[in-house]
Amino acid sequence: MRNESIKGRKASKVAKVAALAAAAALALAGCGGSSSDTASATANAEPTGDFKVWWYEKDTAMATTWAAALDELKAKYPKVTVKFELKTWDQIQKAGNAILDSDQAPDLAEWNKGNATAGSASQAGLLTNLDDYAKKYGWDTKLPESALLYGRYTDGLMGKGSIYGLSTYGEYVSWFYNQDYFTKEGLKAPTTPAELDALLAALKAKGQTMALGGGDYQIVHLAYALALVNADQQWVNDFQFFENPVDFSAASKEWGAAAAKIADWKAKGYFPAKVSGIKADTAVADFESGKNPLILGGTWLDDGIQKSTTKFKWGKFQNPGNLSVGSAGNLLVIPSKSKQKDLAAEFIDMILSTKYQNMLGNNGGLPLLADQSALTNEVTVKSYAVFDNIVKNNQLGMYPDWPVPGYYETQLAAGTKLLSDGDTAAYLKTLGDFYEQNKP
Q: Which of 182, 233, 235, 427 is the most buried (most CB within 10 A)?
């Protein structure tokens, strides 16, 4: 995710009198979104002033690619002063709407997707409606609906309605494994839930466990990954879009089975010692150093793992089961208070061009619109093989915290407690009660 690090994971002064009219038009559009009149009013005016850009990607393919595009934009418009700030996923998760509703709002930002984040921001009028820009640049036809839906919101609910953000890459959660260790010990990547259980038992017998940040986003992803093992797309629609009631009882084959599996793995010693106190960065470092041969993580870890794991070969396998945690990536949005909406839209279009989609892939990311024949990066080729299978089989199950605001924090606290005490009844009650009390 990302939910990434689920993690995780990013005023204008007008120099010319002629540009004042354009700025006024933009200000009028600020609360209701972009318009074709706004776009045409500024079409012939060279951008000037400050352009404030935020994202929280750090040392990733997205960060490298977006920075290159930003450099091109700087060169194209020398009268624009680009002011970039690196944020964190956690900052946006906790204080995103408050920032957007202040005079500190950026002109363009990476934003967390889902009802609780981009959804609530769009409902509060804090994000620009991008429908006109989508038509102008053809985003609504270039991108598949399966990617567009993550930026569509109606009354704060994701999946349908106007476009308030654009994904420019894909992401999913799977298992990373140490191929050299597996070969040495005669272990194979599992393809069924039973084989995964057998693998964890074999690792335990050899004095090994998975790496897991039990006090961080990884436990949230693990729990949902196990819920999706027995789920189908109708269940995802029920959970994410409230089409039908969701069962949080111990008898349910989704959340109930997930809680039971975590408790079972805890009892059998398949997790590291004191797992509930481990952070995701520590768990990732333990995998990268070769200390633990297996870790659950998202594609946002691909590039960092490739750069850090120089002593062994690594591979990936899909979590065995019906569906996988994942989606199109987090969003690029234009805040309603942006004073450079046209410039922000142009930047988004650059990122979606074949040039930068190919660059993203060859930097180790997972592009949506690249020329696949032009991708040579071994990380992308390796990761795309799993992603392609997931997408072709309609197995993307979204992310667990999206349905209601504040759900991530609740799931994290409940998951960490479950790893500590094994109390599945308390875990399911916490998840179910919060969901029912906060759903629309």
A: 427
